[in-house]
Each structure stands twice: as structure tokens, then as C-alpha cells.
Amino acid sequence: MDFIVMADAQPSVLIVDDDATFASAAADFARAHGFQASIAHSLEESRRAIQRGMSDLTMLDVTLPDGTAFDLLDELDAGQHCRIALMTGEASVESAARAVGLPVLDYLVKPLCPRQFESLLQQASTRVQARTVTTRLPGVIGECEAIQRLAEDLDRVAPTSVSVLITGESGTGKELVARAVHERSKRRGNFVAVNCGAIAPDLLASHLFGHERGSFTGAQQRHVGYFEQANRGTLFLDEITEMPPALQVYLLRVLETGEVTRVGGSESVPVDVRIVAATNRDPVQAIGLGLLREDLYYRLADFIIALPPLRARGDDVLLLANAFIERLNAEHGQARQLAPDAERMLARHPWPGNIRELRSVLQRAYLLSDGPLVRIPTLGQRAMPLHQDRNSIVFHVGMSYADVEREMLLKTLANVDGDKTEAARVLGVSVRTIHNQLARLSVAEAEGAAPHA
Questions:
Q1: Is 243 a residue whose pLDDT tops 50?
Q2: 115, 210, 345, 410: which has the fewest C-beta neighbours closer than 10 Å?
Q3: How far apart are CA 277 and CA 149, in angstroms?
Q4: For residues 47 and 138, what is the distance between their CA atoms, to the nearest angstrom?
Q5: How far apart are CA 241 and CA 233, in angstroms?
Q6: Chain centre distance of CA 341
Q7: 140-185: per-residue pLDDT in tens?
């Protein structure tokens, strides 16, 4: 996936209405919102306008001097055409029913409400933005403030040699950002990615550092590890908190010495590797739970990039959705569009699975769609993460006391930068209580179970 910054392409609108006063006012309104606007007063004029080039949005009055909007719709290739809004001064069940199933963005009753018109233009503009883009950085699609800051951060850190720690919920695009760091760096070696939680702990050392022949059962030949494979390049350590603590000690030594020793070997091999690590946990909480060594954290976190969850990215949801649809269209040779109700549903959903969930939902909906419109089935509401920001916690009815205690302890530790003595003072308990509770949490994490009071 590419990191996309919006191009300066100006969206266009064609207004087809025999009421010259209304058409002129609507065109002025669209121009004020950044659109190129053209006007047609009949079907014949609209056909000539369409022959000159498709508009990104066509607003069609249902009744025209030489026919109806449906006469024009019947002539158009619905799959290849722009978004269409039907307008009428006298709504009828018959005309509304005919609009169902057509690539119609909305069915509007005049006089138009300015807010409704603005929403119509915004939806059309979003679709244009998803299609007309320029690639600036490998990474994620978006134009919200957080993503713009991400672009600025990458400009600053990528050309350097410092280690980078990327934090963010699962599905926010951490590996894409890691690749962006590598591709914008001056390093000419390979980008090598490894998920520390996807490899058995007893094999991870061999994968990372390599092994010599005969070093263990099954080691029939020398194996070059990920560090050597990434020499003069970048090694991406995803889910770093899943690495066993004993192996974290050796990793720290490799980072400090710039040398690896293969499992079963005695020779030190020099490596020039830039490390980009990632975690979906709060690093301070992971340190408190004993999942991440504090000294390794400071070695990895020369520069921290925090990726926002999709629910915090505003209109990027629709921008991403339309970009995914365009990509699926290119893959399948189609020209489908999101149905209006689908766009509204996508904008309201909290996306606990972030971009990964959005992509999955759209792909399934696309493959199940038969006509030109992609409709989204009802999306389930999953529980949202409890952590809202550094200084607040959200509890919900039905939470156990154990869960409440856990959230309060971890958020307090995060707020005092892991200082257990200060956390004990703030919570009004002993330091021993803090250590005992962290020990219970650590065991629960290891067992994959919820902690019990």
C-alpha cells in the first residue's frame, strides 16, 4: 500500500436543470467549495457536456424540457460514470423507486439544504481524492492531521541512522511505516521483517542471529540469520514485546556491539543494521509487566512514532475505503462505487480492527456485490479499547473489579513513567502491593488469561 498525499486535482460538477436561477446558484455554491462547475439546461446539452468529459459529480433534475433524468441514465455506462444525484421539486414514490440500484449518490428534494449540498460535495470530493493522488512516501493512506505529522516525522528521521520504535494498535499499518523509514533512508541493504510473536521462542535466536551446522538437532547446515540478511539495511522487529526476556538481553548486546555470534558458533560477525521495532502495547506498561526490558526500550526508542487508530482519523475512513474500492476495481476490471448508505455506515463504525478490518470488510462486500454499487452488511459493534488517553480511563458497566484494578494500575504506571514508588503513593498502597499485582498480571499475560483479584 502507498502513503498518499492528496493531489491538487480539482473535482468537477455538472448541474443539469432547466431552472437557470437554481442552476447558477448551485454552480456558485459548488465553486465556493473548490469545484469546477458547468451547467446544462436540457438532456441534449447534458449529453454534449458529458461527451467533453465525465464530471466527478452530476446533479440531474428529474424532469427536463426534452425528457427525464432516467432517459440519460439509461444511456450511460453506470459502471464507468461519475456519482449522480437526482433532484426534484416534487418527490414521488415512482421516481425514488427507479433510482434504487442505479449509481445514484442521493435523491434530493428542492430547495436543497446547504448542509445537505455540502455533504454531497464532500462525498464526491473524497472519492476524487482517493483516485487522483500522488505517491510521496511508502506508508499509509490519509490526510488527517496525525498522518500529516507522520509524514513530517518520516522526513526527519528516515535519513538518519537512529533506531525507531513504532507504537499503535493492531492493524494501524506499523510495518508499512517501517518500510517507509527504510525506503527513505540512505541504506542500500535489504529490508527484513520478522514478527517476534510468530516464531517459537526456542527458534527465534536461530532465526535472528543464525546458527552453525550441528549446533542443535536438525541444524544440518549453517544458517545466516536475519541480522546478517539485513546487513547495510533495516531489520524490522514487529511485536518486540513478544520476544523472550533472555533473548532481549542478547539483542541489546548485539545493538551495542554491532556484532552477532551465530548459535553454536564462536566467531563474531560484524553487522551494520538499522533497527525499527514495533509493538501494539503501551511500552511503559510492557516494562511494568516485565515484557520489555527497560534498557532495551531506551536503546530502541531513539525516535518514537505513535500511529493513531482509524477511529481517530476522521474522514480518512472514507478516503481509505474509496482507495480500496479503486484498487479492487483495477484488480477485477470493474468500476464499482460505494453505495451512499455504505459510506454513512463506514463513517459511523468504530473500527476496532483498524485498517486491516476495513480492508477485510470492503473486500468481502465487493466480492458479494453484483451491480455497480458496493453495499456494506451491518457491522457488529465490538467493545472499544479502554485506554482513551494518558490521563483518563473509561470503565463500562459489567467490568469485573479485577479488570478495573488492572486498568487503574497500568494507566497510573504509564502516567508516572513506570515509577512504582510514585504509583504506590498515588494509589495509596504499598510498593509491595504494586509488585505483587504486576507479578499476577505477568503470569496472566503469559497464560493468555484475564487476571483475577
A1: yes
A2: 115
A3: 19
A4: 41
A5: 22
A6: 21
A7: 577 788 888 888 899 899 999 999 999 999 999 899 999 999 988 9
> Do 152 and 290 belong together in one domain?
yes
Q: Which of 374, 409, 424 is the last residue of a domain?
A: 374
Identify any residues that bridge with 386 across adjacent strands, giving them in sequence order.
none
Amino acid code (one letter) for 148:
Q
Q: Which residue has the cell 497500568?
A: 410
In the structure grid, which three cell numbers stand for residue 403, read together? 479488570
**Whether the Cβ atoms of residue 336 and residue 369 lie closer than 8 Å to each other:** yes
pTM tops 0.90: no
Q: Where in the sequence is the domain holding 370, given as residue range(s)?
A: 310-374
CA pair distance 224, 49, nearest whole angstrom = 64
Mean per-residue pLDDT over the chain, rounded = 79
According to the 3-state scheme, what is the secondary structure of 65-112?
CCEEHHHHHHHCCCCCCCEEEEEECCCCHHHHHHHCCCCEEEEEECCC
Q: Name every residue whose Cβ is closer than 8 Å to that of residue 327 and which is 6 or more positions away in sequence.
A: none
**What are the beta bridge partners of residue 389?**
392
Residues in the chain: 453
Contact 131, 158 (CB under 8 A): no
Among 133, 162, 186, the domain boundary falls at 133
Q: Give 116-137 pLDDT, tens digit per residue.
A: 888 888 777 776 766 544 434 4
Task: Say yes or no to pLDDT of 325 above 90.
Answer: no
Please give the helix or strand (H or E) that residue 4 lies within, else none: strand 2-6
List Cβ neighbours of 77 (8 Å cut-off, separation of 6 or more): none
